[in-house]
Amino acid sequence: MPASRYDKYVVRKPAIVTGDYQDEIPDTDKIPVSSPVDTGPRVIFSPDRVKEGNSIIEYGIISGDVTIGDGFITEPHKHDYEEIFVFLGTDPGDTTDLGAEVEFWLGEGSERDKVIINTSSSIYVPPGLAHFPQIWRNVVRPVMTIVVMPDAQKRVLKPVSL
């Protein structure tokens, strides 16, 4: 494939998020999965990959019941940038059907509450709002997840006490 003058803006291979929340590009084309039901976050765009970029975009696939953000790898936290969580069903006959139920926790202390979704949805998390865990139940087909962090530059997570 011929190189383009704009190849510096194209990310063709995702990175993974390491335990210190840095992007790591695996040496091989085979990227390890986090668990048998969760690929873990794959970084498809970040300032580490495209120097002019100001945002981070992650994606992943959930294929079975799992809890994310319960202290293993990440925990309930907040940060100074917004996040948009996108949950996409993969049934081509009905893309609104998520094929799972997700319990998504927001807030802390007496303000802590859960949101339940079972359709293709997005959840906006404003700066400073604590979030997690995500509890996935009744997963009947793989679900694509995307997290968009506009103007994040770097992941800076502040753990919260619930």
Describe this structure in words.
The protein has 162 residues and is an all-beta fold. Helix content is 0%, strand content 40%. The chain is built from no helices and 13 strands. It has a seven-stranded antiparallel β-sheet, with no helix packed on it. Strands 5-11-8-9 form a four-stranded antiparallel β-sheet, with no helix packed on it. The protein has a two-stranded antiparallel ribbon with strand order 6-13. The radius of gyration is 16 Å and the shape is globular. The N and C termini lie far apart (51 Å). The chain has one domain (13-156): Sandwich (Jelly Rolls), CATH 2.60.120. The mean pLDDT is 89.
Defining traits:
Jelly Rolls; 7-stranded antiparallel sheet; 4-stranded antiparallel sheet; 162 residues
Gap between N and C termini: 51 Å
Low-confidence stretches: none
The number of helical runs is 0
Extended strand count: 13
Category from helices, strands and their pairing: mainly beta
Content of β-strand: 35-45%
CA-based gyration radius: 16 Å
What is the helix fraction of residues, given as a range?
Answer: under 10%
Broad shape? globular
